[in-house]
Amino acid sequence: MRELTPAECQDYLGQVGGDALLLDVREPWEYNIASLDNSRLVPMQEIPAAAEDLDREQEIIVICHHGIRSRKVAWFLESRGFSSVINLRGGLDAWARELDPQLATY
Predict the structure, then answer these.
(1) What is the rounded distance in angstroms from the CA atom of residue 98 to the CA atom of residue 83?
(2) Is residue 58 pLDDT above 80, yes or no?
(3) DSSP label at 34?
(4) What angle do CA 10, 58, 11 make, to 5 degrees?
(5) From CA 1, how far away is CA 96, in angstroms rounded?
(6) Which is catalytic among the residues 23, 47, 64, 92?
(7) Which of 99, 76, 100, 81 lies closest to 23 in space, CA to CA?
């Protein structure tokens, strides 16, 4: 599993465009407060079932509040044969502090 800082992730997304799936594993109430454009919400507890419908070859960038839940989900996905999983280190909290102060924090 790779990890990218918010700045590295933003640069990387600029390179790959819409090819990567931004997988947000927070709860719906968190997602409603703040989210990245084009991200897909699948709460952490739903990942085992949802993984069956995800493309194992697509690049997946996993997002949460501080990067802990997303790291666990990334490990889970890798253990299930997903070939390219990236964790957003520091999560959306770091994204807001480092890149986008307009993004709501909680």
Answers:
(1) 28
(2) yes
(3) -
(4) 10
(5) 23
(6) 64
(7) 76
CA dihedral (29, 34, 36, 37) positive or negative: positive
Query: Distance (Å, rounded) from C-alpha 99 to C-alpha 25?
Result: 20
Average pLDDT, the chain: 96
Output phi, psi for 81, to 5 deg.
Answer: 95, 10
The residue written with tokens 């993004």 in the block is: 103
Active site residue 9: no
Kindly indicate whether the domain formed by 2-98 is annotated with CATH number 3.40.50.970.
Answer: no
Strand partners for 4 = 88
Looking at residues 41-68, what average pLDDT do you find? 97
Sorted by where each begins, the domain ranges of the chain are: 2-98
Query: Under a CB-based contact definition with an 8 Å cutoff, are residues 60 and 84 in contact?
Result: yes
Question: Mean per-residue pLDDT for 28-51?
Answer: 97
Q: Give residue 98's region: left, alpha or beta (phi > 0; psi -120 to 50).
A: alpha
